[in-house]
Design a protein that fits this description.
heterodimer; A: alpha/beta; seven-stranded mixed β-sheet; six-stranded parallel β-sheet; 12 helices; 15 strands; 26% strand; globular; B: alpha/beta; six-stranded mixed β-sheet
């Protein structure tokens, strides 16, 4: 007899909630029971919560039910930390949309709450994708020797930006997003380098620009950035991150890594495998094969969360990891502001 | 059409590659002299070019009326004096990249070109690789709109014949690795971005040998004056002796161009070195283009003004590596001499 599914509540339906609800609907061990929104949230956030509830067929609740096993925070980024902290203070395990927080101080508050209350606090990430896991296994097996350099690129396709993102201001309005595309995406890149090399970020230097998007330009938010980073044990990395008109990939974004080691090299492309399409009108395209990377990532996270809550199993990604990524993001923004390489705050 | 008479100044690996290109071009040009301080090597190269002789003093061929143009190879520090003397003597010059290790030396070349009215072109061979030529043409045709971000990841084997014990290691003669090999991707990025470099930051590392006097690998991030961005990684750290890997992404306002050598069949073989389809024939194409420009059939596709920008960025990249700080390239002087 299978165990009763975990009872999950989505806290705020502002961003990615529908995507995560879709994954939950296919997961045998997690059941979505309600949507919740803070009473002091703006009216549009309540409207979003009602919309997600209507689409998923669950009620909107004024408070998180005491018997909820898991709270999934899907608010605007600047409210992630407050929502997650409130859920943990009420005794709930949490899964937070990325970025976990928009300041390092808030991330550390979540980390402390998780430790003190012995609660799961994990954050949406891409380190659990099969492509990354396979690369990590190859490196762990020693096939490339000691990693020396990593070249990470995460470029989202901006063609449908105004419609694909629930609200563009969730990415470009600093009061909601906490920054621009660096805040939005760079955590993925830091995570990649850390999981593949086992090394920690030490120093960041970046240039950012509003090179492509008029919406970003009007809001004063960067749409693209190039970053040079140093990590422990002499590992160096480049990070190319942002939103461009057409990402060079088969999917909605290009997520690739090139890693060179002392005894070999290895490349990772999250959009592969893909199927090439050659049309009679000479158009060429590629179709990503298998589930989307977003679907796979959230499914793997839910697997981890189920194991951790039910059996005390290990989490492969926690708020500790997310806090390090946010520390690196803060250092990157500081370097852009000052024009100088900036050390990353080292966490205990 | 009479073939142009060419003297090649230098007898190293690049000079040999240039000679191969002239020989492949048949009657377009005739190599009449090899200038070499190593008589044995000079003779070996000259023996491959019918009628060519070996000389030890470049002044001898510069002063020779029958020589139409000088192909300046040799170590970088020597490029300037040879190129200037040749230009002042009324010869056109092709200068192997990098053209100089300082902007002052480069400007002397540009001044000499302006004074003489002769053509000076820097041999950025990468521009003539089939895939790079296609990318440049696509960008110039507006296929992807205005390019605002370029990402080049370029990895080659650590095995680099001759160089790891050659003058390339000595920054006094090469300017440093960021100048010597950084020029390739920096020139490409600035060409695609059509922008001037405003700030450059570099990190370098030594993949195998901590005592190597220069990093075998490095990355450079560049901010352009118009807000364009580039991230360029060059790694001479691949362990297999034959397995070049290069990925290029050029993101524009209307779309993105991307290329990766990992789709080329040559890479199936990890041992046997051969030139990938994406890069084959580049030197011959470069020499052919230069010869056509010397004849006045076309404009030089590599104006000195652009070469100065690329060199300024490469020098800034080397300085950034040396200091650990971002460096603003010196791009504020006017370069003349574009024929």
């Amino acid at each position: 007899m299978s165990a009763t599914p975990l009872r999950a509540v989505i806290f705020s339906g502002v961003r990615h909630a529908q995507n995560y609800a879709t994954v939950i609907a296919t997961h045998p061990d997690v059941e979505l029971i309600a949507i919740h929104e803070s009473s002091d949230a703006p009216h549009w956030a309540h409207a979003d919560a009602r919309a997600v509830a209507e689409q998923t067929g669950v009620p909107v609740v004024d408070s998180i039910p005491d018997d909820a096993d898991l709270v999934i925070v899907c608010s605007e980024p600047t409210r992630h930390a407050a929502c997650a902290l409130a859920a943990m203070q009420a005794g709930h395990h949490v899964l937070v949309d990325k970025p976990a927080a928009t300041t390092l101080a808030d991330a550390l508050t979540l980390r402390q709450a998780s430790r003190e209350r012995q609660l799961v606090c994990t954050v949406v990430n891409r380190t659990l994708l099969s492509s990354t896991r396979r690369a990590k296994a190859t490196i762990d097996a020693g096939h490339i020797g000691f990693a020396r350099s990593v070249d990470v690129e995460f470029l989202s396709d901006g063609a449908q930006f105004a419609t694909a993102v629930e609200r563009p201001e969730l990415v470009i309005d600093a009061s909601l997003a906490g920054g621009g595309e660096i805040m939005n995406f760079m955590g993925y890149c830091i995570d990649s380098v850390r999981v593949l090399t086992g090394c920690e970020p030490l120093e960041m230097f970046g240039y950012a620009s509003t090179a492509f998007s008029e919406l970003h330009r009007e809001a004063g938010a960067e749409d693209v950035a190039v970053v040079s980073a140093s990590f422990t044990h002499g590992v160096v990395a480049t990070i190319t991150v942002g939103r461009i008109p057409a990402a060079p990939s088969a999917g909605p974004g290009a997520s690739t890594v090139r890693i060179v080691g002392s005894h070999g090299h290895l490349f990772v492309d999250d959009s592969k495998p893909a199927v090439s399409v050659h049309r009679a009108n000479s158009e060429y395209g590629e179709i990503h094969a298998g589930p989307s990377s977003e679907f796979e990532a959230v499914t793997e996270m839910l697997n981890d969360v189920v194991g951790a809550i039910r059996h005390g199993g290990p989490l492969r990604y926690t708020i500790d990891d997310a806090a390090i990524a946010i520390a690196a993001i803060e250092a990157t923004y500081a370097s852009i502001e000052t024009g100088r390489p900036t050390p990353v705050e080292q966490l205990d | 059409m009479q073939p142009l008479n060419i003297a090649i100044a230098g007898s190293g690996a690049i000079a040999e590659a240039h000679l191969d290109a002239y020989l492949a071009l048949g009657d377009l040009a005739r190599v009449t002299a090899i200038v070499s301080s190593d008589a044995e090597r000079g003779r070996a190269l000259a023996a491959r070019a019918p009628g060519a002789r070996t000389v030890s003093d470049v002044a001898e061929v510069i002063g020779e009326l029958a020589v139409d143009a000088i192909d300046v190879c040799g170590h970088t520090l020597a490029h300037g004096p040879v190129a200037c003397a040749a230009l002042d003597a009324g010869k056109d010059v092709l200068i192997e990249k990098p053209p100089a290790i300082t902007l002052e030396a480069f400007d002397r070349i540009a001044d000499a070109a302006a004074r003489s009215g002769r053509l000076a072109m820097v041999g950025q061979t990468v521009r003539f690789q089939p895939v790079i030529d296609s990318i440049i043409r696509a960008v110039d045709a507006g296929e992807v709109g205005d390019v605002s971000m370029v990402h080049v990841s370029w990895y080659v084997a650590h095995v680099w014949p001759r160089a790891w014990r050659g003058w390339q290691l000595d920054s006094a003669t090469s300017g440093g690795h960021l100048i010597h090999n950084g020029m390739h991707s920096i020139d490409l990025a600035l060409r695609l971005l059509d922008d001037e470099p405003a700030s450059v930051f570099t990190r370098g590392w030594k993949t195998y040998s901590p005592d190597l006097p220069t990093p075998d690998s490095f990355h450079v991030v560049i901010e352009g004056r118009r807000g364009t961005l580039a991230v360029l990684e060059t790694c001479y750290g691949l362990r297999p002796p034959a397995d070049p890997v290069r990925r290029i992404v050029a993101a524009g306002s209307l779309g993105t161009l991307s290329h990766s050598t990992t789709t080329e069949t040559e890479l199936v073989n990890p041992v046997v070195a051969d030139t990938p389809s994406s890069t084959v024939g580049a030197m011959t194409a470069e020499i052919r283009t230069w010869l056509r420009a010397v004849r006045g059939e076309i404009e030089s596709p590599i104006p000195l003004a652009h070469s100065r920008l690329a060199l300024a960025a490469a020098i800034a990249a080397q300085r950034s590596y040396d200091t650990g700080q971002p460096v603003e390239p010196e791009t504020n002087t006017t370069t003349g001499g574009v024929r």
